[in-house]
Amino acid sequence: MQWVYASPHFDDVALSCGGLVWEQGQSGHMVSIWTVCAGKPPSASLSPFATSLHARWKADQDANALRRTEDILSCHQLGAGSYYYNVLDCIYRRNHQTGEFLYASEEALTGELHPADAPIISWLQEEAARLLSSEAGLVSPLSLGNHVDHQLTRTALEGLGHSLWFYEDYPYVLRCASRLEEMSADGWTSHTFPVSHQGLSAWQDSIAAHASQISTFWNSEDEMRRAITKYLADNGGIRLWRKPAQ
Description:
The chain is of the alpha/beta class. It contains nine helices and seven strands; from the N terminus they run E-H-E-H-H-E-H-E-H-E-H-E-H-H-H-E. It has a seven-stranded mixed β-sheet, sandwiched between helices. Strand 1, helix 1 (about 10-25) and strand 2 (about 30-35) form a beta-alpha-beta unit. It is globular and about 45 Å long.
């Protein structure tokens, strides 16, 4: 079977369900990670917010090239194929009419999608429909945490009419237990897939490959490895969700 995981950014699938990606590959499935916001930003000046993120990542102007290189290594750790859409990360996107940055603060990252993103959603749907096999298992982020790029990805995929699985966006899921409870009450179903010790190691290694992003969530790689070990133990595997039948 073919599985396609939609990753809003270079690291989201590795963070959220890398262990399951590895296990599926080991079982003989063809697994690919399709990264949505992988476009190279223009060489024009960055917003102060984007500049601060580049500094935290220890990346120069071409942070995109660094992150793509990290992702290629991460996908190799998981035994997964990769595909990259030419969509800009939200921190680089501008209003084409005014030139203003659409998401220029930490708060904006988890706000409402800007209407200027509507053409991107339509384009993503067209491209995914063109590339996606009707038999493929397609896995979308739940958009827990409400990051705008996660919202954009989920919205585009839900408009395809393709049967979807949904993964829990880690680490945002750690703050969203009540939302998962609400989903269960509304008829959503979940299935927990086991992850072996080897799968855990591959999962941790795939996250470590995104070295520029470790400081976003942890103080060190060792802290990340402990956190992923605990997350797996607490859940007994990796959960994927299904919407209730209509």
